[in-house]
Q: What sequence folds into this?
């Protein structure tokens, strides 16, 4: 009983915390982010397992987390509102070469990040070649170049 | 596509299994829950033991031994060797005044106060060290039909 509740509580808690942290936090991982993620994992493990190191406990926790995840994915399919709440929505940050500064600022990404994505994906040199740059729900930036640069 | 359909069907069945497992563990099949909570009484009805039917290896489990009134003077509770053999007895509250060896187990002696109206409760925390089924017996000294505990310890 308590294990299932513990797993559910940790799942919801992590979901909320990572949602608050914003989508860019872990999508472009620096080595420090990676270490932070490991430390969070350790702390979570303590909370989940307690002092019970039995195989059964581990199995129940894994089953609980996966089941919650499945339920959430089904619910997100069924209720688009929940999907938006949990996952967020994609956002246009560059439109026809024009940078939407305020949006970039609020999303805590820089023009350089957009340029990096543009270079990586299409080999573009300037933002003027970009038709749309979109900050996706998963934190990645996708770029659609103007016709002539495709 | 036929294979994909089969995969989907397997997935759906898997989901159902997951949910059933989840419900069962929430109900206490794997310890700590309604299905796991058990109460046993000895033949004379003087000793009652509340315990968990299901324990997990390496994890704590608790049991509460209640001696119904009138309780006065010395109370001797006798455990057969199944408990000490399969569990580390971590705490006994209140601590017994004396703990001694006994053929096939051990004995705890408690000095009860003069308050004869309320039952004596002994809380024991155990950490399991084995897996599998076990039957343990706890009784008052001289009792012909001690309490029988059936415990299953998950790996």
A:
């Amino acid at each position: 009983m308590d294990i299932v509740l513990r797993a559910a509580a940790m799942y919801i808690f992590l979901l909320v915390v990572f949602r608050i942290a914003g989508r860019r936090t872990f999508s472009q991982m620096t080595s420090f982010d990676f270490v932070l993620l490991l430390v969070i994992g350790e702390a979570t493990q303590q909370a989940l397992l307690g002092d019970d190191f039995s195989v059964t406990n581990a199995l129940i926790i894994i089953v609980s987390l996966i089941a919650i995840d499945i339920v959430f994915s089904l619910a997100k399919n069924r209720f688009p509102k929940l999907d938006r709440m949990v996952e967020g929505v994609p956002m246009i940050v560059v439109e026809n070469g024009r940078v939407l500064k305020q949006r970039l600022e609020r999303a805590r990404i820089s023009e350089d990040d957009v340029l990096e994505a543009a270079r990586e994906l299409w080999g573009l040199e300037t933002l003027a070649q970009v038709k749309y740059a979109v900050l996706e729900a998963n934190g990645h930036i996708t770029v659609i170049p103007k016709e002539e640069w495709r | 596509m036929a294979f994909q359909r089969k995969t989907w069907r397997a997935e759906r069945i898997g989901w159902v299994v997951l949910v059933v497992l989840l419900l069962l563990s929430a109900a206490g099949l794997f310890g700590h829950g309604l299905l796991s909570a058990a109460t046993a009484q000895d033949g004379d009805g003087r000793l009652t033991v509340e315990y968990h039917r299901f324990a997990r290896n390496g994890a704590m489990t608790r049991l509460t031994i209640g001696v119904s009134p009138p309780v006065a003077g010395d109370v001797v509770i006798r455990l057969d060797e199944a408990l000490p053999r399969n569990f580390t007895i971590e705490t006994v509250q209140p601590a017994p005044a004396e703990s001694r060896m006994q053929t096939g187990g051990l004995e705890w002696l408690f000095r009860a106060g003069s308050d004869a109206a309320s039952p004596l409760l002994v809380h024991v925390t155990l950490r399991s060290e084995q897996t599998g089924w076990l039957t343990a017996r706890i009784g008052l000294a001289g009792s012909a039909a001690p309490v029988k505990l059936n415990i299953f310890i998950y790996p």
